[in-house]
Task: structure prediction
Amino acid sequence: MITLYRIVKEKWEESAFDGEGSRLYGGRWNSIGRSAVYVAASESLAILEILVHLKNTKVLENYVLFTLKLDEADALVLENDDLPDNWNEEPAPLQTAEIGDQWLSSYSSLALAIPSVIVPREQNYVLNTKHPGYPKLIKTAKKHEISFDTRLL
Result:
């Protein structure tokens, strides 16, 4: 089993796994209109993913951490050789969203393991909210308190 980590603001904890944020705004691995949930393979990577997108360090309060348990067989792993050369550029290239959209449409796996742009030797996972196994995965979610060490800021 793989433990996955997702950090969200407390005010969004009830909708932490509905995929609405990615559906409304898109992401590196999905286009606007496509629902997906992004999680990290470690708590520290989940923290880095929050910090790298933070515009104001004063809002680093009132977050919660969720852990999930994913069976390794439910994940398709994208290796660096499978990615376009510009996969880690900012802003995200259209090619990565196209890869993710094709994967979402295929229902071939519950999760897509992709390298983190921040730490490429570590993995993030995209979860397919429309996959038949998704409700079972969400039942494994456990909520944890989290606070950020002020030295990170």
Summary: The first helix runs from residue 20 to 25. The mean pLDDT is 93. Residues 2-152 form a domain with the Diphtheria Toxin; domain 1 fold (CATH 3.90.175). The chain has four helices and seven strands.
